């Protein structure tokens, strides 16, 4: 297999599989773009890169991403996301993200969503319990009121019956 280089210290081979987006919150990966300072584990130099949170779906150039395997001494067998254009235009800045970092981002997204759902469920439980208590109190007060009215009717009927006899 031919070996290409994306940067002087990162060697690549032909993509092992086409990236398939199977995360529910994939839109976060393209909507949360910031400028940050980062460096890959295989590089000691730092360069300004945009950070994509979660599993990326497309490169900044708009191309779909492939899954690649690093063949460097520092990161042998470590998988990452990269577009094919990055191999052809090595001087341009293209998206690069280690797969395990992307998956950890996705886990954090799912955990945050889980906590939101848990908080929503707890709030709904409290609201529903308050509504049930309110309805229970209304039914109890209505029951008392109907018992009083029934007692008054019974008393009135008894008095009317006594007067007739």
Automatic annotation (TrEMBL):
<dbReference type="InterPro" id="IPR010666">
    <property type="entry name" value="Znf_GRF"/>
</dbReference>
<keyword id="KW-0479">Metal-binding</keyword>
<keyword id="KW-0862">Zinc</keyword>
<feature type="domain" description="GRF-type">
    <location>
        <begin position="59"/>
        <end position="102"/>
    </location>
</feature>
<keyword id="KW-0863">Zinc-finger</keyword>
<dbReference type="GO" id="GO:0008270">
    <property type="term" value="F:zinc ion binding"/>
</dbReference>
<protein>
    <recommendedName>
        <fullName>GRF-type domain-containing protein</fullName>
    </recommendedName>
</protein>
<dbReference type="Pfam" id="PF06839">
    <property type="entry name" value="Zn_ribbon_GRF"/>
</dbReference>
């Amino acid at each position: 297999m031919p070996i290409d280089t994306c940067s002087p210290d990162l060697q690549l081979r032909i993509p092992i599989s086409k990236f398939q987006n199977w995360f529910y919150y994939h839109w976060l990966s393209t909507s949360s773009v910031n400028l940050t300072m980062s460096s890959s584990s295989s590089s000691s130099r730092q360069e300004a890169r945009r950070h994509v949170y979660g599993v990326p779906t497309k490169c900044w150039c708009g191309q779909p991403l492939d899954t690649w395997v690093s063949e460097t001494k520092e990161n042998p067998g470590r998988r990452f996301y990269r577009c094919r254009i990055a191999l052809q235009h090595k001087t341009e800045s293209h998206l690069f993200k280690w797969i395990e970092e992307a998956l950890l981002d996705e886990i954090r997204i799912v955990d945050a969503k889980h906590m939101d759902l848990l908080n929503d469920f707890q709030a709904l439980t409290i609201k529903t319990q308050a509504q049930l208590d309110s309805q229970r109190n209304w039914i109890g007060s209505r029951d008392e009121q109907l018992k009083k009215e029934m007692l008054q009717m019974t008393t009135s009927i008894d008095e009317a019956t006594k007067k007739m006899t």
